[in-house]
Amino acid sequence: MGQLVNYHPSHMQNSDFQMGRDTDGFLLNTHEAHVDLAFVGHFTLAANGSIRMANLAGSAMVRIERSRLLGRAFGLLVPAERRPEVDAFLARVFAGHLEQSMDSELLCKGQARRSVYIGARRSLNGDECSTVVVDITERKRAENELRTSEIRYRRLFEAARDGVLLLDPGTGKITDANPFMTELLGYPRDRLIGKELYEIGLIKDEIASRNMFKMLKTGREVRYEDLPLERQDGRHQEVEVVANLYQENGRAVIQCNVRDITERKRTEGALADASRQRLVLCEISARIVGKADLQGVLDAVVSAVRELTGAAVAAVVRSHEWDEFSIGAESRAEGRGSCPPGQLFKIGTGSAYLQQLYRNPSIRLTGPEFRAKPAQRGVSVNLSPIRGLLGARLVNARSQPIGALVVSDKKGGGDFTQEDELLLSHLASMTSLAMQHIEVRAATEHANRAKDNILAALSHELRPPLTPLV
Asked: Which residues, at least 6 apart from 404, have a Cβ–Cβ distance to it below 8 Å?
């Protein structure tokens, strides 16, 4: 058996102390051997702050040769405005045994300043300190970009014209809401915080809310379109909700973007109506083009325009002299009297609105405007007063007025709208082109007939002299 050795705690302490000294010596030798190969800057500074040693990385960091760094004050390597804090930092280092650290900047000859981390610790004898300088320019840039991004996000969050809600996926409760969300719902922000979506009327009920969270966990995005949202004051709006689940600083967050689409829905309805009108216009255009005679074109136009505008009366007014006009075609609701076709009327006696059409591409007059001016009635003083009128000018190829497309007395007793006026203007343009086309075709046919007559006459005159040559 081996010899027993008496154990005493002091034996272990002495052994540990010796091992520590051996380890410190090993580490010191290792540090000195590898300091020049380090990827970070190493400087040894005297108590007055002058540089006693600089490694290759430190020299490269400031772009100054090592021999020229020796004896130079370390404070001269930082910008002038940062030197007081560096001097205070070194004073703390030499005042105690604890390691000190700070973030500062380092001048780099011929280049932009570098952001650096400086760590320093006084030596055991207290006459120098070992200083490590790490370039953190990229880290600082990334931190600044992140900070800027966060500020921009917050500004966007606050200024967004969509409602934005942030929710805790664990509880389903609202943790933040932007100002527009409070405007959209009519609730103050503090009334929204801590509520669930179904409690503010955004989701139908608690079951629907739980279903949304389940879908978010699998698909990361949920979209709801055409949701009816009731404001605090009872008004209803159409909204679109897009919910996203994402990670923010290692924790899950749900963001709900709520967009008011009430106006968009109105616009879509108006566009649908406009689309239907365009289809009808295409049909009318096909009907007009299919007519070879002028009267056929005018009859087709008045029939279609009365249907589109909901008017009781539609007519094509043809101007003759500067003060006379006639009805070229008309379409009237049942029970409404008609004007004799072809009969001439004086513009100055009961149809002053035509004078306005000669000066303007279109006009729109309401019933009250007619009642305020009894002289502006219709094409005949014997007719009942007009309860609103639309008119659009007809022009020839030289853009000169040749008449007007006129409708009056909207069904239901309402006034004609701006959309009705625009529609009538389109129809008037189509009618003008059709009339011009018929006029050109008639002129072409007349010219062709004249040419045929001339060629026939020339052929007849030339035939006898050529007979002997045959």
From this structure: 316, 317, 319, 354, 357, 391, 392, 393, 394, 428
